[in-house]
Amino acid sequence: MYVVSVQVRGFRDLSSATLADCDRSTHLVGPSPAVTALGDAIELAFAALSHEQLHRWAIRVGLLPEGAPVTESEAEFPDELLDCDPIASQALLAPVAKRALRVEVELHLDPPLFGQLRELAAREPRVVTALAERPTIRLAVGVLFTTTFDGLAIHLDTFAVGDVRFPVNGTERPHWLSRFLRGLRGRFHRFDPADDLPRQLLDAATSRDRHASYTAWQDALQPDGPRLRVARGTNDGPVLLGNNLPLRRHGQAGLDRATLAAAIHLSGADILWAESEDALLQAAVEADPSPLEQVFMVGPTGGVRVQADVPEDQPALRARRAWGAPRS
After folding, report:
1. 67-75: Cβ within 8 A, 24+ apart
2. What's the predicted TM-score (pTM) here?
């Protein structure tokens, strides 16, 4: 699965923007406030499907402090977030947003998801017809902050298969929709060098289900770099090794590359966002088999410039500043 297009509304640094015809390797010019807002928006679209992912998103954008516990809820999908920092909330919103954020993503389905959707909706002929015409789905997520900016409501605005929309609320909501949405959880991962990946690697090294991904990570930096390994060190904590010696010998760059390789091979995601131009990212979508379906790379040499849409009364300027178009 990979992102085909994104529409963003309401963010302070990207009040209204559309990115169409995304490649499996999308290289953005940055970092910049607008690029960060785009990453926030894409992450939010997937965060609406998981309490844990929404919690991580809220910490990343500053709405919740580090270490804040995940809100307990009996709801299958998150519908609110409380105890938000009002200052961080207002810093996230464009002045004209009126307390609302919205993001819509169009996703191209991989064969397993395509087959799963056809099977789940076997009694819904509109799904089969729509998939035959365009094998994509569209998800739109809306967020509305309280008037005091210390809480928010989050909800799925739109679900469509191809060009056919389905109700997302009430008795007409398809019985198969929740199960399908659960299958999208964890499909997007935003690389953060501060993630506690050594602990995850130690778990993967001893897991039958994830051991193949772990061995792929071990060889990710070769032939020019060291062979990687994780071991138990002082107080039974995880230690990263390169060629069976401490990986720190290879400097911060070596540690960062090993961490990025872990995100590529062990996140379990289809789509990875990384503020990096490391060749590992391009290789991750070109390999056969490839560990990722799509990468969003952010760096100074990127080919796609992210910026807000130009008002409708300035059509000439809008044409010059289309996504990826050079400035005049």
Report:
1. none
2. 0.90
pLDDT, position 199: 75
Strand order in the sheet with 188-190: 25-29, 294-299, 271-274, 188-190
- In this structure, the number of other CB atoms found within 10 A of the CB of residue 237 comes to 11
Question: Contact at 8 Å (CB) between 258 and 248?
Answer: no
CA distance 201 to 54: 23
- The beta strands (E) that lie in the chain are given as 2-11, 14-19, 25-29, 80-82, 100-108, 136-145, 151-161, 164-166, 188-190, 228-232, 238-242, 245-246, 271-274, 294-299
For 119-172, how does the pLDDT look when each residue is reduced to its tens digit (9 = 90+)? 888 788 888 888 888 889 999 999 999 999 999 999 999 999 998 999 999 888
Which residues, in sequence order, are CB contacts of 151 under 8 Å at separation 6+?
80, 81, 82, 83, 84, 145
Domains in the chain, CATH or no CATH each:
2-187 (3.40.50), 193-268 (no CATH)
Bond into 326 cis (ω within 30): no
Would you say residue 191 has pLDDT above 60?
A: yes
DSSP secondary structure letters along 210-243: THHHHHHHHTTTTTTSPPEEEEE-GGG-EEEEET
Per the DSSP assignment, residues forming a β-bridge with 152 are 81, 145
To the nearest 10°, report the CA torsion of 121, 126, 127, 129. 130
**β partners of residue 164:** 161
Residue 190's Cβ-count burial label (10 Å; 0-12, 13-18, 19+) is buried
DSSP state of 312: T
What's the sign of the alpha-carbon dihedral 26, 92, 81, 83? Answer: positive
